[in-house]
Write a structure and sequence with these properties.
heterodimer, A: alpha/beta, seven-stranded mixed sheet, four-stranded antiparallel sheet, 9 helices, globular, B: alpha/beta, Rossmann fold, 2 domains, eight-stranded mixed sheet, 13 helices, 12 strands, 35% helix
Amino acid sequence: MPNLLEVRDLSKRFSSGGGPFRKARSMHAVNGVSFDLPEGRVIGVVGESGCGKSTLARLILRLIEPSSGAVAFDGDDLLAKTPAQMRKLRARMQMVFQDPYSAIDPRYTLTRAVAEPFEVQGVKPARPMAEEVAELLEMVGLNPGLASSYPHQISGGQKQRVGIARALALRPSLLVLDEPTASLDVSVQAQIIGLLEDLRTELGLTYLFISHDLSLVKYFCDEILVMYLGRVVEALPDTAAPARHPYTRTLMESTFEPDPKKRRLIAPLEGEVPSPFDLPPGCAFADRCPQASALCRTETPALSSETGHAVACHHPL
Amino acid sequence: MLSVRDLGVAFGAVEPLSGVSFSVDKGETIGIVGESGSGKSLTAMSVMGLLPLIGGRITGGTIVFDGQDLTKLPERAYRKLRGGKIGLITQNPMTSLDPLKKIGPQVDDVARLHLGMNANEARARTEEILGTLRIPEPALICDRYPHQMSGGMKQRIVIAMALAADPDVLIADEPTTALDVTVQAQIIRLLDDLVKQRDLALVLITHDMSVVAQTCDKVVVMYAGRAVEYGPVEAIFDRPRHPYTQALIACIPRGLDDTARLTGIEGTVPTVINYPKGCPFHPRCPRAEAICATDPPTFSVEGDSAAACHFAEVAHAQPA
């Protein structure tokens, strides 16, 4: 399969301005991220809060401008596009947001919410809008009878379905899913995940799935990128691959299984994710890592993939 | 240690909680699990005697702690108990700490109020507790403000406050929901150790069946303000007999060992004003029959566990 998305050395640096009482600081939210997303695959990006996964999603759709690097979508260099060209392209790359409560205008009926992408893109559907909206609502498992309801009249899970219907309206090829189930109850999360699986097969979609939940990512994705403080520290080529980076192993061990027989003595990682501002040199994980050596504190390990299983660690497992 | 029997709660004419029973002993952890709106936090508030604050009242049942029925306890006596013998850990550590007060004085207040200690004694106790919670340099931390600390550290401070008066029962309402997974693992481990070392009775309220599987001895599954199934954790995971419990377990991805498709549960959790008649789960239940829509099921007991389902006898053998 050809690559639908090629990301090369993508970086985003934010800086907070200094003032009379404060030094200027800078943070590398996303630092040199590269990967290929072949058509029809699902890549999961997993990491804890502040690891840069949502920033990465926004950079890929060019909702924010990268500091450096390149993104190619279907062979087109996105960063060379003018805003008008970009808008046209966005019809083919859509995003589903974490919080369906704030992603839909509360004053819009569901019809208007789902029809909004057509309006924005200046596209006229081939058939009457009402029919188009009804089909989209059905596609995401909503009763078309809800078309004239307002967001406050439906549940959180239904709102997320509307969010997905909006994203699908213009028949995109790539969906970037930014924690699409994080604000939902587990029973509803499972519904939405099932729906996304069905849509993927029916419509031949390609997904970039962002989540903090490793067991969900393992269930849903073909490949997994593990991020820590802006960098990809490991790229698992398939979900059965054992962890080679100590951080990935910790993530796996911190994820409980819903089975009391698999109870284990957790040896939790010390400390927490450090502040991303002005990181010290070396591996960002060194301070929490049980096998850190002097080398880890001076030299940042590069993501190397001799075996097709890339890991950024001086002492991989 | 703490025993709740047939608890019911009302706000005016609506009754969001009814028929909730559970008990927990020293050195034991009980999980109360359910989705949003199932009444698990309301159960915690009832035990803490905080219902009047939000306009609710207890309509029936008993909450027996240490031999006395808390539902009949006057507010003055409750005040001694709350934060004293019964400690509470809330979901969001960011809002349960006073942002304008240093950590030390906040934790000291508990021991001063409940144990009648003077300022020096209370501070010594605070530092000792922070130490047992594996907080580095307690003296330094006492001099910090909440905003200078990370989420996991703040949650530890909240736990320290709950422990300061040497409670017998600890109620933890979603203590790890706001935290990252690696920090969640730290806090769960910490609570586990505390139960064993201090012989605490822990009531762990959560929406996460994996957390229950990892830490609890017993579990109560709640749905729409009712307990639908309870029993020892192994039994409930091994032989869930209520269709809701079965579905709740099936909703969680199990990583690699299991490739079963996640299907979720059709429909959504009902809200208080439209609790269904009969069995509250019947509109979403794959095996519901006519009787489920009319008659509320009673508990069918099997060993130490019980499920409130008309088909509990056959539900495990023939899942719908």
